[in-house]
From TrEMBL:
<protein>
    <submittedName>
        <fullName>Uncharacterized protein</fullName>
    </submittedName>
</protein>
<dbReference type="InterPro" id="IPR027417">
    <property type="entry name" value="P-loop_NTPase"/>
</dbReference>
Length: 262
């Protein structure tokens, strides 16, 4: 193995305390909020003109993320930009240990789910835009939701999951975050899950009833302060139509303009 290729390098702003230092490889580091000189040097090393912009479309299950992202990707490509949209997933059927819920392995399954979502952030080449329709923080929200706590994950298991959940927090803090809300989200969720269940698809979690689902919605909303960079965060209410994505896209454009002006 080429050590120089694999080793981690540290990239920090001046004035940081030692315990704030994190280690990133070059491609991970370029996604951080770096000082100008460090960023220029890193881009030169990678042979890139610009760093990719991460755009995260967040929201509860059934809110309409996929529809928004699909249209946004088409629009970004129409503008001549290269887009990376990764869909790495971990499913229960990928490993015999995970096929049935168990106290021994449930934390590991959920941790691997998060690892695959993390891959969506950092596996790219030289695209202009990286778009995500699911963020690893959703696993944090799930574990905070009472209806998800069925006694399968111990506090220590949660701790090990959370280490992976917050692994790229500094990168996420430098991303544009759009949190979607939709009054029809419950109907969307139950309709989708019922269809999947009828086709024999085994979900990672049992289908929620309306009370449990609305509890999850409440937790998602209450914990939005997990995104600390308010200047790159917006809430957008959408509908089940073919126009709401434009509303989201305009918010992204505004945030990008504010970022560039700054």
């Amino acid at each position: 193995m080429d050590y120089n290729k694999e080793k981690k390098l540290k990239y920090v702003k001046s004035g940081r305390r030692w315990d704030d230092i994190k280690y990133f490889n070059d491609k991970e580091a370029v996604l951080l909020d770096l000082e100008d000189e460090i960023e220029k040097e890193l881009l030169k090393k990678l042979g890139w003109k610009n760093k990719p912009q991460i755009i995260i479309i967040d929201g509860v299950d059934g809110v309409g993320k996929s529809t928004v992202v699909e249209n946004m990707i088409k629009q970004v490509e129409k503008e001549g930009l290269k887009v990376r949209f990764n869909t790495f997933k971990r499913r229960r059927n990928d490993d015999e240990r995970f096929k049935e819920l168990s106290k021994k392995y449930e934390w590991l399954f959920r941790k691997q789910v998060v690892e695959e979502i993390n891959r969506r952030i950092v596996e790219f080449t030289n695209e202009d835009v990286i778009i995500l329709d699911k963020l690893l923080y959703c696993e944090y929200f799930y574990q905070k939701t009472k209806s998800f706590n069925r006694g399968y994950i111990s506090p220590y298991g949660n701790h090990r999951m959370e280490k992976e959940i917050f692994k790229y927090k500094k990168i996420i803090d430098n991303a544009i975050i759009i949190f979607l809300e939709n009054k029809e989200c419950w109907n969307n969720y139950i309709g989708r899950e019922t269809k999947k269940n009828n086709r024999g698809h085994k979900a990672s979690y049992e289908i929620l009833n309306e009370k449990e689902y609305m509890d999850m919605v409440k937790i998602f909303k209450e914990h939005q302060n997990i995104y600390e960079n308010e200047g790159k965060y917006r809430k957008v209410e959408i509908k089940n139509d073919n126009k709401s994505w434009e509303k989201v896209y305009k918010q992204v454009e505004r945030l990008l303009k504010e970022q560039n002006d700054y």
